[in-house]
């Protein structure tokens, strides 16, 4: 019988089969120390050579400066002081129901004209799995219990088809000839991409042309503890998860889809989250309003129902600062329940329901690290 081999110095009580005590790569260890993540090598001495190699490659694949910026930003946002945020100015919000029928009809027609001219694309954020719905499938594939049995993907595809027909009809009545298809960009994740593609193929794209649907994957980011340290999935692998809806900007850039949009003549992008059965995909009124205002970014919002409602709200960062979203878990209870004495509403009442409109120029600027002002439009 072959005798076991002892390699290197004693460890783990000098047990037979100990691993040679070669240290982690010094340069990589120093980089981890710079970002306070050296604990990723905490169990190095217990790893086999193959596991060590796997860990090194896993760490080297991370964009450590970007990850560190995200972690620091997240940690700074916790427990925001009262002086750090202000309510969204009333002038930044416009309620459709309070506008005249002439205005609303003008926005509707303006939006349909832009759609007919091929200037609008739809961007779906669909990287998550339906775990909270009791399924490991992509959220858009899950049967959500509608009498029709339709999935979220089917509902949204059918709404795109409907808007296309409306745009063609209105343009034809006006003597025009535009009838461009709405291109649908669908962001998946490494965990949902294959299943999403197969689902669309199996359902023949729900009546859409296959070449008007483009799938692309968002990135992943390390999972971290409350103090910002990497969580290890195994002793030789950092736990990772999709990088959230905010990952759409870098994903669009890395996949060169911003250039693809420009080539197609797209100027406006309607962006929304998949888990919304009521979403008005490619809403002509929202698009027309957005074009009319000449802004670079906008959002539909709904009034927060009560202080403890678990939904993020739009705020202004400081006096005259940019509009941004503060999650319900980050908002101090005293701020969440504060009342605007003039309106009788909550001071921080405009909820983020992930319904956005962007110009292509704005997406390019954000992808390159720039910011622009935005306006809000409540859901109607």
Automatic annotation (TrEMBL):
This is Nucleotidyl transferase domain-containing protein. InterPro entries: Nucleotide-diphossugar_trans (IPR029044), UDP-sugar_pyrophosphorylase (IPR039741), UDPGP_fam (IPR002618). Keywords: Nucleotidyltransferase, Transferase. Belongs to the UDPGP type 1 family. It comes from Citrus sinensis. The keyword Nucleotidyltransferase applies. GO terms for molecular function: UDP-N-acetylgalactosamine diphosphorylase activity; UDP-N-acetylglucosamine diphosphorylase activity. GO terms for biological process: embryo development ending in seed dormancy; embryo sac development; pollen development; UDP-N-acetylgalactosamine metabolic process; UDP-N-acetylglucosamine metabolic process. Pathway: Nucleotide-sugar biosynthesis; UDP-N-acetyl-alpha-D-glucosamine biosynthesis; UDP-N-acetyl-alpha-D-glucosamine from N-acetyl-alpha-D-glucosamine 1-phosphate: step 1/1. It catalyses: N-acetyl-alpha-D-glucosamine 1-phosphate + UTP + H(+) = UDP-N-acetyl-alpha-D-glucosamine + diphosphate; N-acetyl-alpha-D-galactosamine 1-phosphate + UTP + H(+) = UDP-N-acetyl-alpha-D-galactosamine + diphosphate. Residues 8-21 have a biased composition (Polar residues). Residues 1-23 are annotated as: Disordered.
